Amino acid sequence: MDKVFPSIEEAIKDIPEGASVGFPGFFSCGNPVFLTRALAKQGTKNLTLVVMQLGVGNEEINELIQNGQVKKAVCNYPFYRSASKKSVFEQLLIAGNVECELYPMGTFAEKLRAAGAGIPAFYTPTGVGTYVAEGKEVRVFDGRECLLEKALKIDYGFIHAWKADHMGNLVFRKTSRNYNPDIARAARVAIVEAEEVVETGELDPDMVHLPSVYVKRVVKVGKPKIRIGID
Amino acid sequence: MANGKKFEGVARELIALRIANEIPDGSYANLGIGIPTLVSNWIEGRDIVLEAEIGMLNCGPLAFGDDIDQDLINASCQPITEMPGSCYFCSSESFAMIRGGFMDYAVMGALQVAENGDYAGWNIPSSGRGKIGNIGGSMDLAVGARNVFIAMEHVTVTGEPKLLKSCTYPLTAKKCVKKVFTNLSVIDVTPQGFVLREVAPGLTAEDVQSVTEAKLIIAEDLKEMAL
Fold first, then answer.
1. What pTM does this model have?
2. ipTM of the assembly?
3. Which overall architecture, per CATH, does domain B4-43+102-224 show?
């Protein structure tokens, strides 16, 4: 089995208008920067972004937003840290030109995990009695109130891996792993940009972080240049 | 309360030191942004494992110069280092261990803390951001950690009290705070309300009460802050 595509453009060209796309990355770390830039260039519109933060350390996302390609974001950290500086996303949100669905970080991650594991919904104690509980079913387990949260399936997942083999087994590097495995599992089509692509059989099977079954496409990209830091 | 900022108390670094003294060796802990991050400056050589919600256990000190690796940052987006025993994992696993009760301590900043242990820390209504804000991992840490410590200034920059009968800002979590460490005091949250355990050097219980909206129960063995 060989999932390697010749180019990023080829790997993303079937993404239709209105698709939901998941972007891993925790601030500046582990973002699929090459795939994101290619999607901005492709210009696909009406996208729903599933992503931790909107342009906070992951400036490539701002290109999609600036281009008017984004209809909605599902996230947990939508704004710059300081309220005095407004991101492109925040400006559009205030103007009513984009929607925002907000979850606590752990609930966000578990919604992705659940989607990949075939669990349609789960109960969590996180968020009880807060803004995120509005409109959600509350049930008591062992004397503790919990919220019903649903799995978050996505159409396409953009994944940044350190190493991939041709079959799609992945290895991540340090804290750039973050949401990458969770987004890959939640996506119907996980597309991987890998800094290095090796022959199938070269990765130590005991050291594979994400099994190939979750991966549909692989593209070799090299090491991205990252500016560490957030506003 | 108009003149609420009348006491200086101890520096932020010393609030962090006081908290470090409260976390026993053998603990797993998660430190939030702000004063909580400073706790890491006081635990070098201690047997305390720091977790970062980005997906790392046993976080090392900040990295500088050639040691900076773009693939290795903490949850505040600062470059950090590995230590013997460090390991990495994905986000869902990171929050499984947080929600699952494996964090002995979570130290977080707060905008307001109520006497029943509620706290608010993610959304200032006057910021103009409406009901949307940066929740991040705070709600999960608040319900998941075995001990939730709050580290904050005792009053706001304009001198308004932050230790209240009930929170007026959007909550992070209900009834979760165990202890509050401020520049003026160390306070336990108990079923009876706030118990004032320690005061900053030079202050009295009356001083601390004068900048606290909620009623403070004065501990029988009230002490000067143990630094």
1. 0.96
2. 0.97
3. 3-Layer(aba) Sandwich (3.40)
CA-based nearest residue in chain A for residue B77? A229
**B131-to-A132, A134, A182, B226 alpha-carbon distances in Å:** 10, 11, 27, 39
Contacts of residue A107 in chain B, CB cutoff 8 Å?
A: 139-140
Q: Are the beta carbons of B95 and A179 separated by less than 8 Å?
A: no
- b/e map of B218-227 (b: 16 or more CB within 10 Å)? eeeebeebee
Q: Where are the domains of chain B?
A: 4-43+102-224
- Assigned domain for A125 exists: no
Q: Distance between CA B198 and CA B220 in Å, rounded?
A: 11
Q: Do A172 and B56 touch (CB under 8 A)?
A: no
- Do the Cβ atoms of B70 and A79 come within 8 Å? no
Extract the tokens encoding A175.
């804290």
B148: distance to nearest CA of chain A, Å? 14
The pLDDT tens digits of the residues spanning B90-119 come to 999 999 999 999 999 999 999 999 999 999
Cα-based torsion angle of the residue sequence B216, B221, B224, B227 in order, rounded to the nearest 10 degrees: -110
pLDDT tens digits, B159-215: 999 999 999 999 999 999 999 999 999 999 999 999 999 999 999 999 999 999 999
